[in-house]
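W.,

You were right to be curious about this one. When I first looked at the sequence I had no strong expectations either way, so I just let the prediction run and decided to look at it fresh. Below is the sequence, 163 residues in total, followed by the output.
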Amino acid sequence: MLPTMTGVGRLVDDPELSFTQSGKAVARIRLAFNSRRLNPQTQQWEDGDVFWVRGTVWEQLAQNATESLAKGMEVLVTGELRTESWEKDGQKHTQPSLLIRSIAPNLAWATASVTKAGPQQQGGQQRTAQTQQRPQTQQRQAPPQDDPWAVDQANGYRDEPPF
């Protein structure tokens, strides 16, 4: 069983989307995780060790991540750690990799508008999330009338699940 990792990292590049010969979407996402801390003597932020990893996402998640995320964004990511191995010019090489199971912008530093992906959305035709990397406030909008989780005529939202 491979170890699972959950952490907050930063995208080093924009996600790169491609397709396999069989038509499956795959995106490569390079991430950096670091241990930034405040030096109590200088009151300055200092970067500690950095863990660089190449991540891979598949199918609809690959398309959604490519459309929604960009270089520099801080993200919350979960996946299985693996070791990639290859040989080049007679030399064996290895590096860590991450099979990403979920990835999302860190809402501590961004806002996101989320649109549920439906079965009619093939090939990433509709944007599934829009993100901005700066804190901002947004006005609440009235929820759709057919949303059982949000309908409350007095307040517009419900605190209890509809079951």
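Here's what jumped out at me. The CA atoms of residues 17 and 27 lie 4 Å apart. And, maybe more interesting for your project: The longest strand covers residues 74-88.

Coffee later to discuss?

I.
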